[in-house]
Every structure is written in C-alpha cells, then in structure tokens.
Amino acid sequence: MDIVLTSGEASAAEIHQRLPEPPTYSAVRALLRVMEEKGHLVHVSEGPRYVYKPAISPKKARASVLKQLLDTLFEGSREELVAALLDSGDLKADQQELDRLAKLIEEARQEGR
Fold it and tell me: Residue 60: its pLDDT value, please?
C-alpha cells in the first residue's frame, strides 16, 4: 500500500520490483486483489496490465492505519501510543519535535478535543 500511496499508482510488476524482500509475483498479485476487495485499492486496465491506485486519500489511509494500530497495540489509548513513541530509543524526538508536539497538544486542549 505504501508503494501505491507514495507513487500514486503502480502495476503489480512495479510493486514487486520495489519491495525490499519481495514474495513471489503471484503473492503480490493476490495481495493486491485482497486489498482491492477490502476497498483500499482500485485498478484500471492499461493494455494487458492492471494499474493500481489508492481508493482513499493518503490522509484517510493514515487515519485508518493509525486507528487500527491504536486499537490493536494500545487498546485505544492515545496516551500509551505517544508514550511508546517518546520512550522508543530508536525514534528519539529532538527539541523542535517536542516543541511542535507540545503546541499541537495545547491547540487540541483549546479546541476541546
């Protein structure tokens, strides 16, 4: 999905080629079919090949993935999600990032979110 979202569209062959450790080409096509059945992708025919495009905007896709991550790994707790991000050794936030996060939290407070 990431490949299709970042490029806007891609064929199964292009997706297969761009994967770092790709499964078989048939597995890529099967996964694309499943993602299309679930409403994440749509395809258009360009000659003998299908070109896949996101069925939803990148913003909606991010929101959907984030909600699933939040529900699955953090039992719906935004606090736990943010704490995990801040506690992660590999993903340490710099001071500018922390300042932006503090500003976003303050804006959310003021808006009553």
Answer: 85
Task: Sketch the domain layout of the chain as residue ranges.
Answer: 2-54, 58-111
Locate 100 and state its tokens. Answer: 């932006």
Model-level pTM greater than 0.85? no
pLDDT (tens digit, 9 = 90+) per residue, 58-74? 888 888 889 999 999 99
CA trace torsion 46, 50, 55, 60 (10° rounding): -110
Q: How many CB atoms lie under 10 A from the CB of residue 41?
A: 23
**Dihedrals phi, psi of 20, to nearest 5 degrees:** -65, -40
The DSSP result for 34-84, as a single string, is: HHHHTTSEEEEEETTEEEEEESS-HHHHHHHHHHHHHHHHHTT-HHHHHHH
CATH class of the domain whose range is 2-54: mainly alpha
